[in-house]
Each structure stands twice: as structure tokens, then as C-alpha cells.
Automatic annotation (TrEMBL):
The keyword Glycoprotein applies. This is Choline transporter-like protein. GO terms for molecular function: antiporter activity. It catalyses: choline(out) + n H(+)(in) = choline(in) + n H(+)(out); ethanolamine(out) + n H(+)(in) = ethanolamine(in) + n H(+)(out). It is a multi-pass membrane protein. Belongs to the CTL (choline transporter-like) family.
Length: 686
């Protein structure tokens, strides 16, 4: 590294600079154009209705507006027992005719009884037969698959008609208060068989059930969630303002309050754990309980609260030990936070810059998610032969338009050509996985670019503050806008270069996670060990690259050099001050993290008591929810992101001031350094 020469007229980021890493800028623009092309292609081929609406045996969407099936939103299975076939788990499709209907059956009725009964029974039964079917002899209707053999009481579940199962005393399974049914084909059906078939037919929609309940909770509580996030924003802003004037007091207050909040969490978990003692079923272990879609069940067992209590206790002990061992460094970090507070006070617009970052990231995430949905739903309808007896064409692909005149229909009279799944064999479908990969890669690249833009913009503004001899006279009128303009005009290529390197590592981590998921059932211990080592190495590599990129962006903001030169200069500068970096900078990050933890803890505790209905004064105002933890987790995660947005400004300010000090100290100029006497007076403590 070449040391910077002392310039008595140097007053901050260089204004006379040129474009850097132009080749990477061009590559990034071309990649974005390709990304837009993939999005347009996906939007032209995809159909999100495949995710929303159930599909009948012809591949038509039940309940879709503007179609003949608009008033038939529910899917009815001719023979629900066939859903117990292992084929459901292999191809995610029941090997029975499926029909869109207006409502589910509410009674038990066989085809024979409907044929011999009154007109009302026949008209009711015809609603569940294929369109245009007249009542011919039942054997003919059954052999051609035109009508179901029987109807049983059913209820709509995720837009599908599933048997209305229940249990009587003693655990006897019933459907509509009946334990057995006439199958309509000369036999009887036990309700337990129906239960097993219903479980298999529901294997595809179990996750959708949870998702629908969560979505319902969001529709009931979104305004309260929004209020919680606004409160988190107000609390964060008040905290930042107080930190501007009472940095020392606020830091110590944060430390004490974090310890108290976690301590209360431990106390609350213990009280819940103790209150469940002796309760029926409370001693069941999480392993015995297994995976449940109703997550509130886990809060009814003691082991859950014991685990929460142990985790919080470990976190509490770690924080206390860190505070004890780092007590001297904390005093120095507080002084650095005070200086950062002054800088933020002179550049108040920096507090609102995270809103721009959030908006840009929201656009990137939305584009990625929409493109992913359209790509995943751009397959074509695939039909296969389903049969009851031996058939050489079983599970072969077929065309429903010509199936009745094909050899398969002639050789297998009971076979049907039913919709199986979505796929395709065109050139587009062959390269669909590459489009998905490209979508993921560009998502990482764009998200990292937005983050890098924010880091360069903030570091340029705070560097203007640091190098200003007369504050605030020498600080530019609009430091944030000036820094943002320089970053976009001159250094878009450098930002794209740094983001590209980080994105490649992140994509490799995604690939390793995918391989790990595929190899979960493998018995090769060496392969698992090697994969775990690679995941660990790439995780460490990602952290290192993020750290180096962050400091390289600071050097870019100050001197306007290309990415590689700035990264090299920042690396050697940090290596010359490795002790300060490892101790002081990280202690400051730890204190800022405690601030975020405090805000999240305060908002999270209040949201827990509100949504769980434990505040009597507002108990009636709390919405009725399937999972009250859904809005709580949303508020907690949102509060952390909001607090992180505000505190990231402080963190970037601290890193910029620290690197500027190291650079100034390297020039051997001490007269103008506002932090020099602070660091040199305590240098021996490092």
C-alpha cells in the first residue's frame, strides 16, 4: 500500500474523480436487461392461477372468474378412497375423476338409491356427475366414469370437498355420525378407510392450509401490525435523538434495560413452565408431539418453555460476561458513539436514507418473487392414464381430446385420461431451471448493489463531516445528495463489482444448502462431513467479503479509486490497526446491537401481551386469530429491520470515522484529528 501524502487543503471526499470499473458497470447493465427479458418471458408463459385455484381432471380452474366454472369453486373427488394410493405421494394427484362443484355433498347417497328414488334425489346427485349426463343404468355410468358410486357428507377444506370426519367417545371415527357406508358398488366402506384417504389427499394441501390460516390472520391483524411497526419507528427515532444529546447515559441505560428485559423473559418462561406442572399432556416431549400445523399446541407443553428459558439464560450469561471483560473498551466505544452522534446531528438527512434503501430492496424482492411465481407456474398441463385393472398404458401421457378413440381406451375400458401435473418438453421448459437460477443470482446481485449504494452514500456524507476543519461551515450543504450523486455517476461499476463477488459466494451457499437437502437421506458420512466443511468455509468467506467490501466502499467514497485499489488500501490500513479494529470497532457494534435488541424486546413484549389477549383493558380490541404468534413475529422482525435501518446509519458513521482516523493517523498529521487525542490517550489500553 502506498501511504497517502499529507495535503493541508484536503477537506473530505475528492470531487475531481473519474468513472471506475466501467467494464463491470456495462456487464451489470447487460445482466439487468437479461433479467428484464427473463421476467417478460416468465410473465408471458406463467399462470399464477395454478397456485390459487384447484384444478379438475381436465386441468380447468375451479371458481375462476370469467369462465363457465366461476360459480363452481370447490373440487369434488369421485372416489376419495383412491387418494390413499401411494401414487398420491409420487405424483401429487389422486387417481380418480375430479370435478368442480358449487357445494360439497351434505348427505350419504348411493347412485343406485338416487336412480330408484324421487326426482329431488336424482337432481341432487346429477350435480356431482359430469356435465350433460342423463341417468342411464348405474353400471354403465360407473364403467364410463360419468358419476361417482356414492356421496358422503363432506366439508370444504382449502377449496376441496373432504369427508366431514369426526370422533365419538372412545375414539371411534365417524363421517356424519356414521361408521360404515354403502359404497354403491355392492360393498361397504369403513369411516377409518375414509380418514386414511383424506390424509393422503390432503398431503399436497397441508402446507397451503397453514398458509391460508396465516393469511387469514394477516387480514385480521394487519392494521395492528402496522401500528406496531409505527411504534417501533417512533421508539427508534426517539432513541437516536436521545443518543445525540445523552450518548453516555443512553448506552448504559441500554445495557441495563437489555439485561432486565431478558431477565423478565426468563422469569415469564419459568412461570409458564411452572403453571403447566401437573396439567394433562403437558409433559409430552416435542419429539413425541412431532410436526403440528397448529403451532399453539407447542405452547401447551412444558418442554417448550424450558427450552425458551434455557436459551434466554444462555444469552443473558453471555451478555453479562462480555460486559465484564470489555468494561474498559466500552468507555472508549461510548466516546466514539458520542462523536458519531455529533456527525449524525450535522447530517440529519442520513437518518432518512434507510427509507430509500428499504424501498429499493422492496422493489428488488417483489420483482424476484413475482418472477419466481410466474416461472414456477409456466408449465403446461400433463395428462396421464389412470386405471383400476392391469393396463400396459398405465401412467403414460395422453390427450383427453383423443383418448376415447385411442388404443389405450380400447385395450383398457376402465382407464381414464386425467390431469396429472404441470410440466412440458419445449425448449423453454428444458431451460426453465436455468431461468430460475438466473432469477436467484440477479436477486442477490441487485440486493447487494442496493446495500452497497447505501454504504457508499452514507460513508461519503460522514467523511465530509470528519475532514471538515470548521464544522459545520466546511460541510457541504446537502452531503447525502452529493454523496449519492457521486456514487451513481462515477462508481456504479465499482459497486457492481463488489456486489458481484459477494453474490457469487452467496449463490454457492444456496447451492450447498440445496445439495445438503438432497443428501439428507444419504448414508455417506464423508460426503456429509465434506459438505458441512464447505458450508462453514463459504459462510466465513461471505462474512470476510462483507467486511472488506464495507471498508472498500468507504475508501471509494473518499478517494474515488476503483474497487480493487480501494479494497487493497482498506485491507492494509485495517491490518496496521488490527487491534483497534478487532476490539474497539466490534465493541461499538455490540453496543449498537444491544440498542436494537432493546427496541425489539420492548415492542415484542407489548405485542405479545396484546395479541395473546392478556391486557384486560384492550382485550376486546385484540383480533381473533388462528396463530397469535403470526402478528407477534411479524412485528418483532419488522421492528428489528426498522431499528437496524436507523442503527445502520450509526454503524456506518462509526466505521467511517474510525477508518478516517486510521487514515489520518497514518499520514502522521495530528493537529486536526478530532479523535486523535481520544485514541492516543487510551492507546495503551488496546
Amino acid at each position: 500500500m502506498v501511504d497517502q501524502k499529507f495535503d493541508p487543503n484536503f477537506k473530505g471526499p475528492i470531487h475531481n474523480r473519474g468513472c471506475t470499473d466501467i467494464l463491470c458497470c456495462i456487464l451489470f447493465i447487460l445482466a439487468l436487461l437479461g433479467y428484464f427479458a427473463v421476467g417478460i418471458l416468465a410473465w408471458s408463459q406463467g399462470d399464477p392461477r395454478k397456485v390459487i385455484y384447484p384444478t379438475d381432471s381436465r386441468g380447468q380452474f375451479c371458481g375462476q372468474a370469467g369462465t363457465p366454472l366461476e360459480k363452481k369453486p370447490l373440487l369434488f373427488y369421485f372416489n376419495i378412497l383412491k387418494c390413499a394410493s401411494p401414487l398420491v405421494l409420487l405424483e401429487f394427484q389422486c387417481p380418480t375423476t375430479q370435478l368442480c362443484v358449487e357445494s360439497c355433498p351434505d348427505r350419504h347417497l348411493t347412485l343406485m338409491k338416487a336412480k330408484l328414488g324421487n326426482n329431488e334425489d336424482r337432481e341432487y346427485y346429477q350435480k356431482f356427475c359430469k356435465e350433460g349426463v342423463d341417468f342411464a343404468p348405474p353400471p354403465e355410468l360407473l364403467s364410463k366414469g360419468l358419476c361417482p358410486g356414492m356421496l358422503m357428507p363432506s366439508k370444504a377444506f382449502t377449496r376441496r370437498c373432504l369427508p366431514a370426519l369426526g370422533t365419538m367417545k372412545g375414539g371411534v371415527v365417524v363421517v356424519g355420525n356414521e361408521t360404515t357406508f354403502d359404497s354403491g358398488e355392492g360393498g361397504s366402506i369403513n369411516a377409518s378407510e375414509v380418514l386414511e384417504a383424506s390424509k393422503k389427499s390432503n398431503v399436497v394441501v397441508e402446507a397451503r392450509q397453514v398458509a391460508m390460516r396465516i393469511f387469514e390472520d394477516y387480514t385480521q391483524s394487519w392494521h395492528w401490525i402496522l401500528l406496531g411497526l409505527v411504534i417501533a419507528m417512533v421508539v427508534s427515532l426517539i432513541f437516536i435523538v436521545l443518543l445525540r444529546f445523552l450518548a453516555g447515559v443512553m448506552v448504559w441505560l441500554v445495557i441495563v434495560l437489555v439485561i432486565l428485559v431478558i431477565g423478565y423473559g426468563i422469569f415469564h418462561c419459568y412461570m409458564e413452565y411452572a403453571s403447566l406442572k401437573g396439567e394433562p399432556g403437558a409433559d409430552v416431549t416435542i419429539r413425541d408431539l412431532g410436526l403440528q400445523t397448529d403451532f399453539s399446541v407447542y405452547l401447551q407443553i412444558r418442554q417448550t418453555w424450558l427450552a425458551f428459558m434455557i436459551i434466554l439464560a444462555i444469552v443473558e450469561v453471555i451478555i453479562i460476561l462480555l460486559l465484564i471483560f470489555l468494561r474498559k473498551r466500552i468507555l472508549i466505544a461510548i466516546a466514539l458513539i458520542k462523536e458519531a452522534s455529533r456527525a449524525v446531528g450535522h447530517v440529519m438527512s442520513s437518518l432518512f436514507y434507510p427509507l430509500l434503501t428499504f424501498a429499493l430492496l422492496a422493489v428488488v424482492i417483489a420483482y424476484w418473487a413475482i418472477t419466481a411465481v410466474f416461472l414456477s407456474t409456466s408449465n403446461e398441463q400433463v395428462y396421464k392414464v389412470f386405471n383400476n385393472s392391469e393396463c400396459p398404458f398405465s401412467r403414460d401421457t395422453c390427450d383427453p381430446q383423443t383418448f376415447n378413440t385411442s388404443n389405450a381406451s380400447a385395450q383398457c375400458p376402465d382407464a381414464e385420461c386425467l390431469f396429472a401435473f404441470y410440466g412440458g418438453e419445449t425448449v423453454y421448459h428444458k431451460y426453465l431451471i436455468l431461468f430460475q437460477f438466473y432469477n436467484v443470482f440477479l436477486f442477490f446481485w441487485c440486493a447487494n448493489f442496493v446495500t452497497a449504494l447505501g454504504q457508499v452514500t452514507l460513508s461519503g456524507a460522514f467523511a465530509s463531516y470528519y475532514w471538515a476543519f470548521k464544522k459545520p461551515d466546511d460541510i457541504p450543504a446537502y452531503p447525502i445528495f452529493s454523496s449519492l450523486g457521486r456514487a451513481l455517476r462515477y462508481h456504479a461499476g465499482s459497486l457492481a463489482f463488489g456486489s458481484l463477488i459477494l453474490s457469487l459466494v452467496q449463490v454457492m451457499r444456496v447451492i450447498l444448502e440445496y445439495l445438503d437437502h438432497k443428501l439428507k437421506g444419504a448414508q455417506n458420512k464423508f460426503a456429509k462431513f465434506l459438505l458441512s466443511c464447505m458450508k462453514c468455509c463459504f459462510w466465513c468467506l461471505e462474512k470476510c467479503i462483507k467486511f472488506l467490501n464495507r471498508n472498500a466502499y468507504i475508501m471509494i467514497a473518499i478517494y474515488g479509486k476503483n474497487f480493487c485499489t480501494s479494497a487493497r488500501d482498506a485491507f492494509f490500513l485495517l491490518m496496521r490497526n488490527i487491534v483497534r479494529v478487532a476490539v474497539l470497532d466490534k465493541v461499538t457494534d455490540f453496543l449498537l446491537f444491544l440498542g436494537k435488541l432493546l427496541i425489539v424486546g420492548i415492542v415484542g413484549i407489548f405485542s405479545f401481551f396484546f395479541f395473546s389477549g392478556r391486557i384486560k383493558a384492550v382485550e376486546e380490541a385484540a383480533p381473533s386469530l388462528n396463530y397469535y404468534w403470526v402478528p407477534i413475529l411479524t412485528v418483532v422482525v419488522g421492528s428489528y429491520l426498522i431499528a437496524h435501518g436507523f442503527f445502520s446509519v450509526y454503524a456506518m458513521c462509526v466505521d467511517t470515522l474510525f477508518l478516517c482516523f486510521c487514515e489520518y493517523f497514518l499520514m502522521h498529521v495530528v493537529a486536526r484529528s478530532p479523535l486523535f487525542f481520544l485514541f492516543t490517550s487510551t492507546y495503551t489500553t488496546f
